[in-house]
Design goal:
Layout lengths: L2 H21 L12 H16 L2 E3 L3 E3 L3 H10 L2 H18 L8 H29 L10 H28 L4 H4 L2 H5 L5 H13 L2 H39 L7 H19 L4 E8 L4 E9 L2 E2 L3 E4 L4 H8 L3 E3 L7 H6 L10 E9 L2 E10 L7 H70 L10 H18 L3 E8 L2 H8 L1 H18 L5 E4 L4 E7 L3 H17 L13 E7 L6 H17 L5 E3 L5
Parallel strand pairs: 13-14
Antiparallel strand pairs: 1-2, 3-4, 3-9, 4-5, 4-6, 7-8, 8-9, 10-12, 10-13, 11-12
Length: 609
């Protein structure tokens, strides 16, 4: 027997002795008792409200126990009421496995403690009620009874809370984390129903009493179902809420860590530990994901552990919890599996599997440096807590997997998007290349390959366009045809390569002297044309004179030529009714005139011609 249980038994023995001493003032069996059926009804109803109370491993339970207890105190003699209230308290721990935390020894502890506690609650509460002037049985309450009932409720709650806190403290629980105001005061809420039950039982007909008892029974069952459903929904909603906001604040992995933190906090209020951790089985990787580990209250970094080492793997394999009271006396097979840090020596160890729907999700473990710190009841309490948290962990685990799937899917989508973008860029580049080649092909189809100015095709298209523009708008239009003088001699004496260079340089110079909107073109071997929208013959002659002077200055030092090339030109105005051929014939005419007159000159028709 551990020191913790020894302290509890000593406390129970003292409490039992004090209770016997209290009962010796007025032995219950010497008083006037109600009929046996009434006694059984009170006992059974008390067991009902406890069985369908709201069980919490760290505290016991919260229930409507004040209803039958207060009703008994307001209907029967004080010692009889105390005995009737204590009897179900003595029986209940042996009828509810979870309340006794799976241990008959711990159940006996709670049975003795609860029975004695209920006696003191009933006696001291009843004495306070009678001291203020409350009537028994209660039939028509007035202001005196109201104050008496308030005194009854206050004394019962103070005695109940004081004795429960003492029990939890001796059980080495973290009392101030467990004994919240909600827990300490919740029983008092049902005192008015107990008063109502006493009034109905004292003055109503049997049928009314039966109907009222049925109503209370249905209320207990319905309230239990409602609270349990609400608790499960709240747990699920908390898990879903936290994980659904993963994109804003919390991921599924972070949610698991929060649940593990809450689990270890709750266990810490029940079972002091030096080291505690929550590890989940990763089926895909075949190891443990240690979601949270606390050592001396300090949180360690999330790690992974192999399944074939450590006691957690043993618990996972067997599916059964493990409790080691004294590490030095533990079986050698278990000690050999343990993975201990240098200088580490555990005293007591407990590990409980986290099971959900027939599958072991992982384990929760606590250990203390002292031996004998954990009892069978503690082991069962740890298992109960693990069972309670299992569905929440299962939900969070599912959400973490979904979160991982979402991350992988997003990465896949991102990679696929990048591939599509790359393909799109390649397609765009290819399209641009095609467009560039098309433009280049179009340009080359309209461009002279040697001189890179407009070719004959482009010249024909452009002069037709300009004639139509002049015809519709009445604007001037002029055409000049230029021929390089004695160019055959250049080819014959210096070679065709030199001739090609001369042609390129002449074309470049011509392009430089062209005004905006004009089109220079090579329309034959050494023959060029100049389309000049908006120009008259006179203006064109002036332009070509400037070009002729520039040709005289053209530097050809790098070529084997004795002198710069000269040219002859013919200029013709467009006249209404002219088509392209007519305009060309007239420009050619004046070119031949320039040739006949000795070349190196520009000839154009006068306005009268």
């Amino acid at each position: 027997m551990g020191s913790k249980n020894r302290n509890l038994w000593l406390y129970n023995l003292v409490l039992a002795g004090c209770t016997v001493w209290l009962a010796s003032w007025a032995w219950p069996w010497l008083a006037d008792w109600p009929p046996l059926g009434v006694v059984l009804a009170f006992v059974l109803f008390q067991l009902l409200v406890w069985h369908y109370g709201f069980v919490v491993p760290s505290m016991g339970l919260t229930s409507m126990e004040r209803v039958p207890q207060v009703a008994a105190l307001l209907l029967f003699p004080l010692e009889v009421a105390a005995a009737i209230n204590a009897l179900p308290a003595l029986v209940f721990p042996f009828t509810n496995r979870r309340y006794r935390q799976g241990s008959l020894r711990f159940g006996a502890l709670r049975a003795v403690h609860n029975a004695c506690m209920v006696v003191w609650i009933s006696v001291l509460g009843g004495m306070a009620y009678r001291a203020v002037g409350g009537a028994v049985p209660l039939q028509s309450p007035g202001w005196t009874e109201l104050w008496a009932l308030l005194s009854l409720a206050a004394v019962m709650q103070v005695v109940n809370s004081s004795m429960m806190i003492t029990f939890l403290w001796l059980d080495r629980r973290d009392v101030w984390r467990i004994a919240t105001w909600d827990y300490l005061l919740s029983d008092s809420l049902f005192v008015p129903i107990g008063v109502l039950a006493a009034l109905i039982c004292a003055s109503a007909e049997p049928v009314t009493i039966v109907l009222f008892v049925l109503f209370l029974t249905l209320t207990v069952l319905s309230l239990h179902e409602l609270v349990e459903s609400r608790r499960h929904v709240q747990e699920r909603v908390r898990a879903l809420d936290a994980a659904s906001s993963a994109r804003q604040a919390v991921s599924g992995s972070r949610q698991l860590a929060q649940i593990a933190q809450r689990l270890l906090d709750h266990i810490g209020a029940l079972l002091p530990f030096r080291t505690g951790f929550v590890a989940l089985h990763d089926v895909e990787r075949g190891d443990f994901d240690v979601v949270l580990e606390l050592r001396e209250g300090e949180q360690r970094e999330r790690t992974r552990k192999p399944l074939d080492k450590g006691l957690s793997g043993h618990v996972l394999a067997t599916g059964q919890g493990l409790r080691i009271d004294d590490w030095d006396r533990a079986p050698e097979a278990l000690r050999a599996r343990a993975v201990l840090k240098s200088g580490e020596r555990p005293g007591s160890v407990m590990i409980a599997p986290i099971r959900w729907r027939g599958r072991t999700l992982g384990v929760v473990s606590v250990q203390h440096s002292q031996s004998g710190r954990y009892s069978e009841a503690d082991s069962n309490a740890l298992a109960a807590i693990a069972d309670d948290i299992a569905p929440v962990i299962a939900d969070a685990r599912t959400l973490e997997e979904l979160d991982g799937y979402r991350v992988r899917l997003e990465a896949l989508v991102e990679a696929r998007t990048a591939e599509l973008e790359a393909v799109g860029q390649e397609r765009e580049q290819l399209l641009l290349e095609v467009q560039r080649h098309a433009a280049l092909s179009e340009q080359r189809s309209r461009e002279d390959a040697l001189t890179l100015i407009a070719n004959r095709r482009h010249f024909d298209e452009r002069i037709d366009i300009e004639i139509q523009a002049a015809l519709s708008g009445g604007a001037a239009l002029c055409l000049a045809i230029i021929d390089i003088d004695h160019f055959k001699q250049v080819n014959d004496s210096a070679g065709h390569a030199v001739g090609d260079t001369v042609l390129r340089r002449v074309a470049t110079l011509l392009q430089q002297h062209c005004p905006e909107g004009a089109l220079p073109a090579r329309i034959g071997g050494e023959e060029f044309a100049l389309v000049l929208p908006g120009f008259t013959a006179t203006a064109t002659v002036e332009l070509l004179e400037g070009f002729r002077q520039a040709m005289r200055m053209l530097r050809l030092d790098d070529l084997p030529l004795s002198a710069p090339p000269r040219f002859s030109a013919g200029v013709a105005d467009w006249r209404a009714g002219d088509d392209r051929d007519q305009l060309l014939r007239r420009a050619d005419h004046w070119l031949y005139v320039a040739k006949r007159k000795g070349r190196d000159r520009i000839c154009a028709a006068t306005p009268a011609e």
